[in-house]
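Sequence in, structure out. Go.
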Amino acid sequence: MILDALSVLSGPVTSSSSIASYEAKAEREREAEKAERIIGYITAENLEALEAMEDEEESAAESDELILEVVSVTVSDAENEFLMKGDEEAFSYVMLSDDLDLLIVSKTEDDGLLSDHTLWVNGREAYSSLYLSSDDDEEFYSILSVLLPYLKSPDTIIVPVDIPAVVSLSIDGSPVTPLRSVIALEKGEHEIIYTSPRFERIEETVDVDESTVLSPHFVPLFSGPAFISSLPYDAAIYYQGIPVVNHVVEEGTVPFSIAARHDGFSPFSMQSTEISDTISISLRPEWMAENDTIERAKGRFYDSLIATLVTFGAFVATNSLSGIYTDVDLAPVAVAFTGLSLVQLVELMDAMFDYFQMARMGG
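Output:
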């Protein structure tokens, strides 16, 4: 949670090796941009702009994105005791001795169902709550609010972002990945671009203030023709409320809705956000709407199964008794049970097939 908050406010929060890699990549990008500008000035014979660029300080080309290295601090028992009390002098001592710019200390005490949670940043209490169950979002926003003045300018605010997961966000030309659906932005105008394989591109200029929420209206992209296969085949099909001719949709969109009707079948409807050139739907017969239809078929199958087991059991028992009591003629009884067993087996197979068909069509 703390790493998420730091990422929102500072950009990459990484190890030393990753920071070095990030800085090397940023340097390569600056060099490529510089070379492109030089070529452009030479092509346009704009010598004044070329001379002005050469006089720029190196710091002007550096990225203004803040990168943090997160480390775990080892402290003595005495230092830990004072830190857990929120002692400002203890915070100052540990930060100075370990060369830290930011020191975050968290403590949770459980007492049965209750939990007392406290978090300090540089000696300042950021969050304190006694609760029955943890409210993750409340704690996250509390951490954001207390870290904000340490990592951002006074004009920076936290802006909620309400966009689908498949949408990419770019602000002032730089890609942004919202964490927990929030980003940190300075007040004022920003050029924002939304791109997605499923929605039309949106470009807008937003004047950001405390009431700003990034939640534009997205228009689905055209996804091409689609074939709708239906059971029964001659069902009346409606795509986005428009009748479909010959089962072919010429201009598909995402997301979409499909409805279908046919005499003797229950109305069908579905919604989807998946792009597909073939869509298969199946209508249920009206008689399947009766709640006890499948139950009756299942009851018949179970009754037939029990009856089959009983008759076959009686047949086996009769044959066994015939072998034991040879002086008693049990042949007529065995023949009778043989006939009943065969009849019951046929009934069982019919009931099983009937139950299978009911369950498949009603599933």
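Check: DSSP finds eight helices and 18 strands in the chain. The helical segments are 2-10, 16-43, 47-54, 77-83, 88-97, 136-151, 293-324, 331-362.
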